[in-house]
From TrEMBL:
Family, per entry: Belongs to the FMN-dependent alpha-hydroxy acid dehydrogenase family.
CDD domains documented for this protein: LMO_FMN
Protein species of origin: Actinomadura harenae
Domain FMN hydroxy acid dehydrogenase: 19-387
Protein name (database record): Alpha-hydroxy-acid oxidizing protein
Binding residues annotated for glyoxylate, in chain numbering: 45, 151, 186, 260, 284, 287
Required cofactor names: FMN
Length: 387
């Protein structure tokens, strides 16, 4: 029995109370459990999406339109789901998507997430909009692998400072999110006039930054907090960015860079042409362009366009191990898990995140094995049929 699916035996042999923190093992039930625990504002921010939330629903429907076609009698006794993605070895092709403002879900926020990721050997991608500083999160994650997600601010000096800090704190790859230079129209938050940042959540990396502090007249205290928040609003996103700016970024960061939020084959080709190391096919969980194409439907054309020249990662709509397997079969090198681990965080902090990760990994391995696959590289379109 291999390590990833050992979780299943542990549950049966050691019993629920010893192994499970009282959380569902059917990960599609996490949202309901988290809703019962969180405030309406926090749950709305986490679960909500843009506009009518049609794209968020489409992300799920796209997974349902693909069905797995299991193959038999192929000796799957020895299994190994490990991969190396953008230079980082991973026990399975699953990463934790960058999710900001995690302290609205649990006081330990990104610290708990980093600990859970380290415990499972998975790579957590830390958001620029984290509620703890990147240095504190790096310390919490210890030796665990970590990547940094950049929200590229208007001031290049501030962007460079973020990158220097990330390098110094041991983040090895950079994920640049290009689909969120401003927040979309998000009715659940608009209806409650709720934005975590305006309550000082998600600004830790800005307020702790020497370049930011210089701009607001020194360290952020009660006295200049309002000025600092206004400066944050002005700095957060940069709608003027173009492909030409990536050359500057390339000079600032010598490790791998992936662009997150790519949905069109031509954009993927431009990522190759501008010297990027990867793309993340993503529509931000339906939180940006309502009516946008389902992320899974955008994946095959990007995989084709890139032709193996750079890495293709995927997110938006992944809820189960079977979903991960489907995205891999459609050509993703790895998959970012988003809301499910955040629901776990809300439900039980570090233990909740660890629970979700272990469930996904075990379910992924069992899905692949029971459908006749020992490794991820054996997966192909042959694995899937249209529903
Ligand atoms: C509450 C919340 C906060 C997020 N914050 C960030 C962020 O700071 N940076 C980023 O690149 N993506 C962010 N995302 C998007 C995720 O990285 C990911 O693309 C998305 O959650 C995938 O959709 P899914 O959760 O439906 O699978 C956030 C998503 C949620 C739900
Ligand atoms: C805009 C951010 C700072 C957080 C985010 O990416 C999100 O809420 O989707």
């Amino acid at each position: 029995m291999s390590q990833l699916a050992d979780f299943q035996n542990e549950i049966y042999l050691n019993g629920l109370a010893d192994v499970l923190p009282g959380l569902p093992t059917d990960l599609t039930r996490l949202a309901g459990a988290a809703e019962a625990k969180l405030s309406a504002t926090s749950f709305g921010y986490l679960a909500g999406a843009a506009g009518s939330e049609a794209t968020a629903r489409a992300n799920r429907e796209a997974f349902d339109r693909w069905r797995i076609v299991p193959r038999m009698l192929r000796d799957v006794a020895e299994r190994d789901l490990s991969v190396t993605v953008l230079g980082t070895p991973m026990p399975a092709p699953v990463l934790l998507a960058p999710i900001g403002v995690q302290s609205i879900l649990h006081p330990d926020g990104e610290l708990a997430t980093a600990r859970a990721a380290a415990a499972t050997g998975l790579t957590a991608i830390l958001s620029t909009a984290a509620s703890h500083t990147m240095e504190d999160v790096a310390e919490a994650g210890g030796d665990g692998p970590r990547w940094y997600q950049l929200y590229w601010p208007k001031d290049r000096e501030l962007a460079a400072s973020f990158l220097d800090r990330a390098k110094a704190a041991g983040y090895t790859a950079l994920v640049v999110t290009v689909d969120t230079f401003t927040l979309a129209w998000r009715p659940r938050d608009l209806d409650r006039a709720y934005l975590p940042f305006l309550r000082g959540i998600g600004v830790a990396n800005y307020f702790s930054d020497p370049v930011f502090q210089r701009a607001v007249g020194g360290p952020v205290t009660d006295e200049n907090r309002q000025v600092a928040l206004l400066h944050w609003i002005g700095q957060f996103g940069n709608p003027s960015l173009t492909w030409d700016d990536l050359a500057w970024l390339r000079e600032q960061w010598d490790g791998p860079i992936a662009l997150k939020g790519i949905q069109h084959a031509d954009d993927a080709r431009r990522a190759v042409d501008t010297g990027m190391d990867g793309v993340v096919v993503s529509n931000h969980g339906g939180r940006q362009v309502d009516g946008a194409v389902a992320s899974l439907d955008a994946l095959p054309a990007v995989v084709d366009a890139v032709g193996g020249q750079i890495g293709v990662l995927f997110d938006s709509g992944v809820r189960t191990g079977a979903d991960v397997a489907k995205a891999l079969a459609l050509g993703a090198d790895a998959v970012l898990l988003g809301r499910p681990y955040a629901f776990g965080l809300a439900l039980d902090g570090e233990a909740g995140v660890r629970h979700v990760l272990r469930c996904v990994l075990a379910e992924l391995e069992l899905t692949l094995a029971l459908s006749g696959h020992r490794t991820v590289s054996e997966l192909s379109l042959d694995f899937l049929a249209r529903a």
